[in-house]
Specification:
The structure holds two protein chains of two kinds. Chain A is an all-alpha fold. Chain A is built from four helices and no strands. Chain B is an all-alpha fold. Classes of the chains: A mainly alpha, B mainly alpha.
Chain lengths: 133, 89
């Protein structure tokens, strides 16, 4: 029944489609990094876009090779990326708030004001402590 | 040249254009956290290029490079953010 089907061709087509979709997501992330007006908006754009694009590219590569150890390595990379990219974005975002990187003008900061005041006041307290020392 | 390898080469070219755009933002970025996020996206793009090159050549050893690179990209961005946090206090 399956003699007439060219499985290599089917794998190549599926892999090509997945890789092209992933590359489009990466391109959207890079354009967003270049064009968005604010540091926080840029960080949000590239975190989501690059994670999804990398996952799609690696899934396409694992589909093409059709082996168990290759699939395990691909799943290792995808799981590690999905785990570490939001953590890194969160740490860098907190660092930016600590360092008083300015927000974009139309950003709504009403609910965020208390946290900002607390962060910056602790910042100043630490500076004063350092001066006392 | 088959359509499959043409697609892979086209994908690698598009990722290289992404690298150029990230380099422009890296040179232009007004603050240091901008450059750290640029580094993060740069490493992700390099992992994608390594994966596509693995598929293009059929050599299965290159995927280990992608594993190590994902590890080191995370460590690099975290350590940059950590030292920036320490130096701001």
């Amino acid at each position: 029944m399956f003699e007439n089907i060219n499985f290599l061709l089917i794998r190549e087509i599926i892999s090509s489609i997945l890789i092209i979709i992933g590359v489009i997501f990466m391109l959207i992330a890079a354009i967003g990094l270049l064009r968005f007006p604010d540091f926080y908006i840029r960080m949000s754009a590239i975190t989501k876009g690059s994670t999804l694009g990398l996952g799609l590219i690696l899934t396409g590569m694992g589909t093409y090779f059709n082996e168990a150890d290759m699939l395990l390595k691909v799943l290792l990379i995808i799981g590690f990326t999905f785990l570490t990219t939001p953590v890194a974005a969160h740490v860098i975002g907190r660092t930016a708030v600590r360092n008083k990187i300015p927000f974009w003008g139309p950003t709504d900061l009403e609910e965020f004001k208390d946290y900002l005041r607390k962060e910056h006041s602790t910042h100043r307290d630490h500076e004063r402590d350092n001066k006392h020392l | 040249m088959s359509l499959f390898s043409f697609t892979l080469i086209f994908a690698m070219a598009a990722l290289s254009i992404c690298l150029v755009l990230i380099g422009i933002r890296f040179a232009l970025g007004p603050s240091l956290p901008d450059r750290i996020t640029c580094f993060d996206l740069f490493v992700a793009n390099i992992i994608g290029i390594v994966a596509i090159y693995t598929e293009l050549t059929g050599n299965k050893d290159f995927i280990d490079v992608a594993i190590i690179l994902s590890l080191f990209g995370f460590l690099g961005s975290i350590s940059f953010a950590y030292y920036l946090l320490k130096s701001s206090r």
